[in-house]
């Protein structure tokens, strides 16, 4: 990560957020409660960092 306001940093963050939204929220409209949402995002983060292939 570079200096504050670096466009490359923003692109990385936007890409990460887009991937998370696409893979976690796929066909899901609503979570039953905030805890369920938090658990799903946490599971995804673990998978993203340890198992998922990055290209």
From TrEMBL:
Domain (Integrase catalytic) ranges: 2-55
SUPFAM superfamilies membership: Ribonuclease H-like
Protein name as catalogued: Transposase
Organism per entry: Corynebacterium striatum
